[in-house]
Amino acid sequence: MKRLIMTVVALMCATTLFAQIDIATSFAEGKTQAKAGNYTEAIALFQEVIDASWDIDAPDSNQLTAIAGSKKFIVTCYNKLGIAAYNAKNYEEAIANFTEAANLAELYEDVAAMNKNRTYVGQMYQAQGADAFNNEDYATAIEVFSKGFAADPRNTDMALNLAESYFKSDMYHEGMRICTRIVALNPDKYADAIAQAQAKMDMYTNNEVAKLQMANDYDGIIAMAEQLDDAAMAAKITMQAYYGKKDFNKMIELSVAALEAQTTDEGRSDIYYLLGVAYNEKEQFEQAIEAMKNVTAGNNVANAQAVIAALTPAE
Fold it and tell me: Is 165 within a domain?
């Protein structure tokens, strides 16, 4: 019995030594293959090290080096395969490799590599969808750009193209949701994209409102506003709709919340102008003048001043 136990212990020691030598050898060979540009072969060797590591309860320093190095280099190898596929314009293969690189980087807690490869994924989808977008095949562009936006929502060029594809496909609310997410980005870093997104929101919202106004569907405008993520714009559209319905009391009622929803001087001035219009229609001229005095920015400044002059009694 004693001899058997000793044999088992010796076997265990031999297995541990074998694992150590196997990991070190595989890692070294993986680096050699990677350096030679044989990334598929290198990946297989690095994965062999990673798989073997699960069976080691207490890896020594050499094993830890091999394991950590394999986790780092396998991400790099998938990235290199992605670049090669991109250069060959094989976007599907490039996306698959960059995605795998990003997923492995996330698994191994390498945030920088994860973000870099997700950025590459977004760029691949952007390149893949460009032909469809330029050919006005917006259904295909939406399908491709949506995947890229999910991978990298900070690729604002692609996000703007996705929003435009939605708008051109009469998918107003979907386009607005993308623009709203762009507008919520850091203004110090994405000022130009935010301005473009806001311009799209204003233009396509005006188009939607105009369609409904032509049909005298003011309730439709109100319903449309209720679905918007942009509270400031929704409040303004709603007040405009109630003006169309000649419900001036409702405009006055909504004005406090509408003002609170605004984030710019132009937005607040627009609401004050609508409030002044409502008071004027109700022939509450003093209140109309006070509201118009708060119109200090935007496109209604001159109109507000004209109203104030017209309503102010001559001395």
Answer: no
